[in-house]
Design goal:
The complex is a heterodimer of chains A (596) and B (334).
Chain A (H helix, E strand, L loop, with lengths): L2 H12 L3 H12 L3 H11 L15 E9 L19 H7 L4 E4 L4 E4 L2 E7 L2 E6 L13 H13 L8 E6 L5 E6 L5 H9 L9 H4 L7 H6 L12 E6 L3 E6 L11 E8 L3 H9 L13 H5 L5 E7 L4 E5 L9 H10 L2 H8 L4 E3 L11 H5 L16 H10 L3 E3 L2 E3 L7 E7 L3 H17 L2 E7 L1 H9 L5 E5 L11 H9 L14 E4 L6 E4 L1 H9 L4 H18 L2 E3 L1 E10 L3 E2 L13 H8 L3 E2 L3
Parallel strand pairs in A: 1-10, 16-17, 16-18
Antiparallel strand pairs in A: 2-3, 4-5, 5-7, 6-7, 8-9, 9-10, 11-22, 12-18, 12-21, 13-22, 14-15, 19-20, 23-24
Chain B lengths: L1 H27 L7 H9 L4 H14 L5 H13 L13 H36 L4 H15 L2 H15 L19 H38 L2 H8 L4 H38 L5 H10 L3 H29 L13
Classes of the chains: A alpha+beta (596), B mainly alpha (334).
Chain lengths: 596, 334
Amino acid sequence: MSKIAVKVYAMSRTNDDYSGTISRRHAIKLSGVAGAAALAGCTGESSPGEMSANSDGVFDITLTGATNEGVPSNMHLNPMATQNYDWVAGNHVFERFAAYNFETQEFEMAGLSDWSFEDETVTLTLRDDLKWDTGDDVTAGDVITQFKLMKKTEATLWDFTDSVEQGEDDKTVVLTLSRSTNPEIIKHTLANSDLRIHGYQPVYNEFLDQDAAAIQQFEWEEDVHGNGPFSFESKSDQAWTLTRNEHFHNAEEVKFSTYELLNRQDNNALQQGLMGEELDVVSSLFVPPSVVEGLPDSVEEVTLPANWGYGVIFNHNHEDFGKRKVRQAIAHVINRQQVADNAGPRTKNPAPKVTGISPADQESWLGDAYDSFESYGPDATQSEAAAALLREAGYEKSDGTWQDRDGNSLGGSYMTPAGWSDWTTATNTVVDQLNAFGFDFEINSIPTSDFYSAYTESEFAIGAFYWMPGGARSSFPYFPLRWQLNNPDIGGGHNFEETEYTIPAMEGSGEMTINPFEEIRSVATTQDEAAVTEAIQRVAWHSNQNLPLLGLVEKQDQSWLTSGGWDIPSADDDARGVKWPSHWLPKQGKLNPSEQ
Amino acid sequence: MVNYYVRRTARVFVTIFMVASLTFGLIRLLPGGPYTLLRTRLLRQGVPAAEVDARIANLQNIRPDAPIWEQYIDYMFALAQGNLGMSISLNEPVVSILAKSAPWTVFVVLVSTILVFVIGISLGALQAYWEGSRFDKVFSGISISLMSVPFYVIAVLALYIFAYQFGWFPTAGTVGRGVEPALSVPFVLSALEHGMLPIFSYTLGAIGGQALAMRGNSIQILGNDYVQVARLRGLSDRRIATRYVARNAILPMYTGFLLLLGFRLGGTVILEQIFSYTGLGYYLISALNTNDYPLMMGTFLVITVALVLGVYVADLTYSKIDPRISAGGSDEAY
């Protein structure tokens, strides 16, 4: 039985197109009678010799992606809910305000046509053609409802916002700030990938008079209306089915009818899905090099900075690791290039300098000062420098192990999360390097839940932890630098005290005193770019010298597209730089069925 | 006699009570709380940490943590009324989650276990009948080999070969997308199609053990005097094989069948994960990952109750099937 025949047969039986998925791509490619006949079997609207496009040029074809957020029938589409919101589906249903492009390092407008920043006022202008899938306009009232609800849920937008009201027309929203705020922070907050325009008033207005918990418990499953490129059609245990939203502002560029998201919980299932050409796109999936080699030629990998990655966290209250010189010695010993090579040569980059700033942005932010930053040997173990520091800190090497004055060996339990496979490799490498130098560490691998609670409760000495919070926001150094100091992910469990620190001066041989907390906070309220740059350089310098956290490698996120049956932009197209390509490209008209 | 049935029935309830209490205690000893994974997930989703904390705090206000003894008493009273509570992670009654997931698991386990017995018994009987023949030797070898391969290895291979490579079967799910859940031909066909690989994987490896057991039983019975007498009486081979040998050889396996049904329910935890088959095992893993105590308890209890009932039914009915055994005293099947 030919693959085309298999498809028609499968459809006639159950309307389940698993085998059709495999054959569809091949069927699309056939421009002859057989291909058209296969499509006709599904749609009943094509004629021999041509594909089944309707009068708008839309093909009755399904783009198949996947979600690993949970069984779709248990999930919903209320982005404000604490649990069970499937953001993978939500990203297609709701347009975002703006997006950060990692390629151009600039913001791109999406649901907004403009934003302007003036002292303590921010004006957001919604696109004129931004509509709900009912055909009604998305208005300032919808956004105001959403923002007011976000105030109840203590969203970060309200860290600097005092009030929100309608501007001169029903497409303009004006935010009045509680204090002068750096526009970059506001832009990153609005362009954060989890923030979508979803405040459909007929549904959300009723929550304005209720507690925050009410909106966070609300499961939006019926009568869902969005404004993104696709509308919610149905969900089952197996998949989300989304259909093209004809009222989307760029609908004429979306040339296919259906976007399906299969429920695939397991990384292996997602990898197999790409391998067997069952999936056309996967938004984010770690695929090891050995599996990448086995993927069909039509599968294309898009790598984007994760602004996240493996680092070393210290308990600053610990008698050994609370000492700056011990932390610096550890930084000298670790060969970051080797850690990256072992943990994932294709997807890990060593941080060129230990600064707390994302590797891709270090040079542009540090400018001329970049060279003066200590590198701690990114691709070497600097044993002599490390040994000198430990001796200065009062340790001696005896029988191959560094010991304090009481004869206690320098080391202990090195905490690492179990099951994070690439991190396990990184930890093995780091601990091997440290022990080879004369530390005495043993790996303590614990489940993720334990891992977080151990850090939150400060029940650790040293361990593995990510050194940036991740996401586009981390491209603006304010976010990772501040995050490393107060580490809200573990409730500040690393005990890095807010106080003044004396460190070597950035220039010359003297010393400087800095309260990095105060200094980084000043960035949030400064609109003067020169002052922002100077403050960021000073806090980065503090980070480089005092090591509140030790950043080792940065992860590259892997996103997946397929060219078999689909037109996708070339590797040098900047449009690939927005996360996630499988969400962003369709609405730009840059991921459509191939007509060849 | 009546006393015996009462004792057995009482023991069922005592066992379930004890298992429920034990699991309740053990589950609460698990590290982390129900919101730890949720917190991690929201952080990775890009929600800022302060906002995550606020969201979870709101959630905890709705479901405050009572002292453990109070939770235990509440749970046991609710359980007695058939109320298994609300799933923390799915915000849905546990009973309704079990109601929609259990039929899929029961379907796979029941069909698979019946197949294991039918095929295993037939194969074992033939092997015994032709004891020492090439057929016997070959299939004994195959049976031993199959026994030594864990079902999940077969499952992974079957999924890779038949679903991903050949595309003959679906790669995941219980029914096709777009198939209405109603008692209709497309639904039944789709369910069979989706259940095929899980059933195949769960059946293949287990056949060997049953075949060898049946072979052993049959050979032992073939050597009995009454079989020799039957032969001397000139009865046909067919009659001897079915009436004299098979019946007696199958008897000891009857209890095994009921127990295996219960045991194999637990095995679906791995199977359903491999096939993304949304049955009990799938939700059990999901509950474990999220420390969803009520859902974990619910799924554990279903599995326990199935096993206890298996033993109970075996005990009560064994004497009916084998008249040589009389009820009471030492007639317990397990």
